[in-house]
């Protein structure tokens, strides 16, 4: 185990959201449960003896000082020297993003844009919420530093919570007139909404869904401009590093990954720690332990066994040795009193409902995977377990975005981490424990049990075929996959097909493009 070097890295921020609390709930109650084990950087000045305090512009400058101005070359050099990577999940090197935008600008000769991703659709992650609620100016410093270096004409911040949008809006107003356009936009909250193309689509006035096309935002992003897009914490880390310089930044963390991390522990506590800090110490500071295992990286992440969780450190190399990545920084331990199989089945059902509705693996594969996992929990036998594994293989590497792969990885990791639990449930024994909601879900989604398995919500409408007009072109099956299924003769198998809300837009597109004008959407009230 590598111990972190001495440093300047943490504060404890407790967001006392219940496991079923929506991300759009009231302002979090933040306050230190105990003296923080590491001093703060990003959260400096936020925690006080009386709880948390939002840093307005004056307080922010008092704590952090004035932000420097960097050229594009200096920005790239700083990001390379400190090994800055995106903190939204993918961990892509920030310097490469900036370089890609610069190259696109050389080719286009036009302006750029900068986008801050503060959507945070992960139910177990609240770190970006904490930053934007209590230290919004630090995030804006980083975004504006990058914007000025690139000569950008706009900075846009995408969020989902009303209180977060208000905090960022106030911060922009506190800065007064600026030389470039700056705005905050509140977008629909969905798990896939934080994907890059979905965020750009939402900021440009679209529905906020992944495009499914391999178009880099650095080439064509906000308003069609070359766009630097990164996560809230990434820009905050940039703002701190610009003030400290590369050498000052390296005074904490591990040598090959210096600096600090923002973590969300158990879906409630936001903690800043130096890279290389022991996972067990981060859990203990938040009043918990490894329990039956710890989900690392959120609902597209990987479970660590208790033994590994007690020894592993929080850095890329140490986690990679266990097949895990930190992702967006969510650490979700499963306490001894909850049912792991039921917890994971509830999450799988929720993930299936978070589909963008744009490809078969999402529309068909993920609900089928959730059904198979729920059947295991209800005692479906060896056949049900085999069906789960088959469904995992069926969706892998086939989606238009990363959601099917991430969901399959979560389920496969759960099966590997808790084989005896799933086997006991499949063969009718179960574990006798309730599902406590240790893996938080928005709106208090119910876990599957033998008496009341989780089911998808009833469809609100139907897609209807007029047989007197249909000519079997089959275009509708391509435009609304999972809604329209064609028979051997090439015609739809049913005259009226259930239409989930997430597929309404695709169905309307099929109605408009049907060559025979044989389709219509029938509302549930008819």
CATH fold type of the largest domain: Rossmann fold
Output the radius of gyration. 24 Å
CATH second-level architecture of the largest domain: 3-Layer(aba) Sandwich
Beta strand count: 17
Distance between the termini: 64 Å
Helix content: 25-40%
Number of helices: 18
Please give the order of strands in the largest beta sheet: 1-11-10-14-12-13
Sheet of most strands: 6 strands, mixed
Shape field? globular
Secondary structural class: alpha/beta
Q: Which range does the strand content fall in? A: 5-15%
Number of domains: 3
Average pLDDT over all residues:
85
At the first level of CATH, the class of the largest domain is Alpha Beta
> Low-confidence stretches at least 5 residues in length (pLDDT < 50)?
1-33, 445-459
CATH homologous superfamily (4th level) name of the largest domain: NADH-ubiquinone oxidoreductase 51kDa subunit
